[in-house]
Amino acid sequence: MCTLKKIVLIALSTCMLLSFTACSSKDDGVLTMATNAAFPPYEYYENEAIVGIDVEIAQAIADKLDMELKVEDMEFGSIITAVQTGKVDIGLAGMTVREDRLLSVNFSTPYTKAYQAIIVTENSKITGPDDLANKSVGVQESTTGDIYVTDDYPDADVQRYSKGVEAVQALLQGKVDAVVIDNEPAKVFVKQNEGLKILPEAYTEEEYAIAISKKNDDLLKKINDALAELTEDGTLKSIIDKYITAD
Ligand code: ARG
Fold first, then answer.
1. Position in ligand 1 atom list of the atom nearest CA 143
2. For residue 54, which atom of ligand 1 is closest to its CA?
């Protein structure tokens, strides 16, 4: 065989091998979920395992679809791209439905409501959102907290952290004046640390949903059907109640 033929053959078989592995990672039997497991009670580490409301919802959906669930932890800001490019099947990360995100991905029916809460130190003079105008505010990068504070208060000094808990640490160390983060994680972080409080006024109103590729309408429909059943039979509520106790 001449060298050229050999090269072509090798190139071809490498291609086939690559496309085969690309296919097998999108195996029909596996539902891959992207998340950012630093967001209790929705997703967080318990020892080595990622647990929380979103993981249990995804598991319940996977069970209904007769699929195996695989969870991939990544930066919150990478989740939409991972869904969009088909690296994962779904994004489930306490993710708020937003018009701008809908340009990149589809969202399922919302599964819960949430809002941005403001955390300050117990003796803070900050009493509501408008006091953030010229303050230093810690947020988790690329979240709605980041987006709202950046848009609403151009004179605020927005400090962006990879994880919400890092913003809370910065608040405890006096590096920022307030933290803007989703209400349930806010409650967890305030409970875990002395000297902090959550302001009574909700800064935003939001709804969480599952992000799915725009190219996968079939999966969108299956997930919405599964969510409807899980709502109907009370499973969704019992998952949420397991992690969030009325206060
Ligand atoms: N709800 C906010 C958003 O959609 C924050 C979500 C952060 N989630 C996470 N797993 N870190 O932007």
1. 12
2. 10
Ligand 1 site residues (CB inside 6 A) read: 35-36, 38-39, 43, 76, 93-96, 140, 143-144, 182, 206
Pocket test for ligand 1, best of 53, 180, 182, 208 (most atoms within 8 A of CB): 182
User: Own/partner pairs for 151-159, CB < 8 Å, 24+ apart?
Assistant: 156/132
Q: Residue 87 falls within a domain, yes or no?
A: yes
CB 174 within 8 A of CB 80: no
- Whether 103 shows a pLDDT value over 90: the answer reads yes
CA of 86: how far to CAs of 12, 18, 71, 109, 246, in Å? 24, 16, 14, 20, 38
| In-domain check, residue 7 | no
- Identify the three-state secondary structure at position 167: helix
CA of 13 to the centre of ligand 1 (A): 42
68 and 187 co-located in one domain: no
Predicted TM-score (pTM) of the model is 0.89
Q: What is the pLDDT of residue 21?
A: 44
Q: What is the CA radius of gyration of the chain?
A: 21
Q: What is the CATH number of the domain that holds 166?
A: 3.40.190.10
Distance of CA 215 to the CA centre of its chain: 20
Ligand 1, atom 5, lies closest to the CA of 143
190-212: average pLDDT:
98
